[in-house]
Amino acid sequence: MNLKISESPPGWIKLKKLKLLKTIGNEFLYFKRNPPSLSDDEGIDNLSSLNCINLSGLNNIETIGNNFLYNCQSLISIDLSQLNKITSIKDYFLYHCSALTEIKLSPKIKTIGNDCLIQCIKLKELDLSELTNITTLGNNFLGNCYSLKNIDLSKLTNITTLGNNFLYNCSALETIDLSELPNITSIGDYFLYKCTNLKSIKYNSKIGNIINNVKYPYLKNINTTVQWDIRNTVPALGRVERIL
After folding, report:
1. What are the average pLDDT values for consecutive 10-residue runs of the chain, which has 244 residues?
2. What is the DSSP string of 43-89?
3. How far is 164 from 56, CA to CA, in rounded Å?
4. Are 124 and 97 within 8 A, CB to CB?
5. Nearest to 161 by CA among 230, 113, 212
6. Contact 213, 186 (CB under 8 A)
7. Which residues of 182-220 are buried (b: 16+ CB within 10 A; e: fewer)?
8. What residues contact 211, with CB distance under 8 A and at least 6 apart?
9. Does residue 202 come out as left (phi exceeding 0), alpha (psi in the -120 to 50 range) or beta?
10. CA dihedral defined by 192, 195, 201, 206, rounded to 10 degrees?
11. How far apart are CA 118 and CA 139, in angstroms?
12. Residue 226: which of 211, 196, 161, 129 has the closest Cα?
């Protein structure tokens, strides 16, 4: 099946006819710098100009495999919010989509794999408030997203795990609030590492204890304001603003 960009407006792909599809496999829309020629049954060619993709008709999708939209450097936006059955996104999702400025995710997602949304260097904000069912964000989530200033984690009340290198090298990030995440049990090493512009982090005492056991959290090396609940334990990071 060959879904060429030329069938839609320039730079667009429509997938509305695939209504019964449940799984998007590995390397779907994987753009290589010098891609081989593709036969009629091998997928989509000429991804260098892909800037928009319409997934709204894929109502039965449950899983997105590895390398989905990998290295699609012209992609500007993507909307997964209408995928009402999706529960899992595998590794390398939207890896190095350097023009990406907007992404909407489905509230049904429970897990996001490793190395997702890395080097999306034009992404300035990401609203995760709809992800009330998510339990895991894998390693290197949003790594090297240099322009990211705002990320809303406040509604991720079911999340238990933040992988290694969470928000690694997001050098424009100024504040982050983890205080409303009651179920966090694991935070990986290099938490917020090289977030050199970070001015404030807010979290509860439980998360404070977890962070204190993380290897190489960059917070210990910068002048960061830490907000915490004084009714329990005291974090050993930066300046402290008490929250009663």
Report:
1. 36 46 48 36 52 79 89 90 92 94 94 96 92 96 95 93 96 91 94 90 88 73 50 41 37
2. B---GGG--EEE-TT-TT--EE-TTTTTT-TT--EEE-TT-TT--EE
3. 32
4. no
5. 113
6. no
7. eebeebbebbbbbbeebeebbbbbbbbebbeebeebbbe
8. 187, 191, 203, 217, 219, 235, 237
9. beta
10. 10
11. 10
12. 211
pTM of the model: 0.76
- Looking up tokens 């049990």 gives 185
Q: Which amino acid is at 194?
A: K
